[in-house]
Amino acid sequence: MDRDASETRNEVQAGLDAGEMVTVFGRCRVDYDGRASSELGPGDRLLVLKPDGTALVHTDEGHQPVNWQPPGCDHESRLTDGELHIHSTRTTPEETLDMYFASVAAVNRYAVTDDSELSVSGTEADLRERVLESPSLVESGFEPRATERGTAAGAVDIYGVDGDGNAVVVELKRRRVGPDAVGQLDRYVTALRRESHDGTTVRGILVAPSVTEQASELLAEQGLEFVALEPPE
Amino acid sequence: MDRDASETRNEVQAGLDAGEMVTVFGRCRVDYDGRASSELGPGDRLLVLKPDGTALVHTDEGHQPVNWQPPGCDHESRLTDGELHIHSTRTTPEETLDMYFASVAAVNRYAVTDDSELSVSGTEADLRERVLESPSLVESGFEPRATERGTAAGAVDIYGVDGDGNAVVVELKRRRVGPDAVGQLDRYVTALRRESHDGTTVRGILVAPSVTEQASELLAEQGLEFVALEPPE
DNA sequence: GATTCTATCTCGCTG
DNA sequence: CAGCGAGGTAGAATC
Known about the structure:
Two copies of one chain form a homodimer.
Chain A: H1 5-17, E1 21-33, E2 37-49, E3 55-58, E4 67-69, E5 74-80, E6 83-90, E7 95-110, E8 119-121, H2 124-133, E9 143-151, E10 154-161, E11 167-172, H3 179-195, E12 202-208, H4 213-222, E13 225-228
Parallel strand pairs in A: 11-12, 12-13
Antiparallel strand pairs in A: 1-2, 1-7, 2-3, 3-4, 5-6, 6-7, 9-10, 10-11
Chain A binds a DNA duplex through residues 32, 34-38, 62-64, 67-68, 70-71, 92-93, 95, 120, 122-125, 148, 154-155, 173-176, 178-180, 184, 212-214.
GO cellular component, one term (chains A, B): cytoplasm
Pfam families (chains A, B): NucS_C (PF01939), NucS_N (PF21003)
Organism (chains A, B): Halosegnis rubeus
């Protein structure tokens, strides 16, 4: 099932040169060096080289590739010590990925045409639309005034006022939230209180499907509020 | 280049039954429904089905699969309206992925053996080891007393005391940090101050390679400190 | 390019 | 199983 390494290399390089998607399955070692560094001993893996400069190394397990390079990298095929050697580099940050194939079971080249765009629903953006269309879902009398309003601590998802004229900061999450989301909301509320030189009251409301116990306690400690709401669909 | 759909389906199913990694390249539509939902119109994509129940749908661009299922899913091959139809399901949460192939250019089956483990260096754990071996890198006189010390707000990376007997909370990050890390440290410090009924001073120190401007301001506002330190390697 | 935040995040660990 | 935090997170939007 093994193939002549030189012929294999030519096939891989021809695919890369043609702007095709190239896959290589075989026994290999993998070295990575960059933001971190890693070593992976011999094993059977599927290498996917994309025409946009992406490289993915997949084992038989897991959603995540065991090693990879992001889009925009340069891939080179080489013969190093008689083995097929794929060398991929990027800059900013400087990172290299090297794969050494002791044997190659298959090389495949695919000419890819894909004009469709993925459409997703049930995102945080959908939840924001839902709140903007029906602000009373947050609270009777709530009036949104701005989205992505800037503060010293970052941009607030929805900024508005309540029925008593108090300022309201709404932080949206599409799923059940933990302590991190409370910290985020607290930063925005604190920043706005600091920025409002008059005595305006600033309320913080976390809008999400649900909240963990620890996050709930943090909300109470900080005097922040929670409203249960799911993204549409 | 197209293949008989029934024959193709048999090949895919045989690979799944044999516990092999199966790839299908061809023109397809993809529907996903679960935590969110998505639709993807016709285009050429590479489908990877792993023996652990993972499914990955890759276009010609990007590190991330355009659609996927995590490990542990059940994959079925079907003939629906004369097309190869891959149906993948999971529970908790209930999620389904459906791929309909208008044409298939290639099916590949790979028997995978991989006994090697990935070893990574330059992680947060490596940074923690570095600090525990040389606590003076944080500050002269700093003495670590515990790692992963529990608080009401979660576990502190390193807990210790300074030369004056004050409590010190160290939050480690392997890379440049933004506002979220400051919020995290602040939650731990606040929780410990609440828990220490005597008048013990609790200091919070963020240890990371560098810090963004906004995070730096947040640190100053909260009376927290920063020490520049990189993970080893 | 740097910063900030979302994500069907995934993954590992711990209770 | 849920919760919590790390990640070479990637990706998008904005400055």
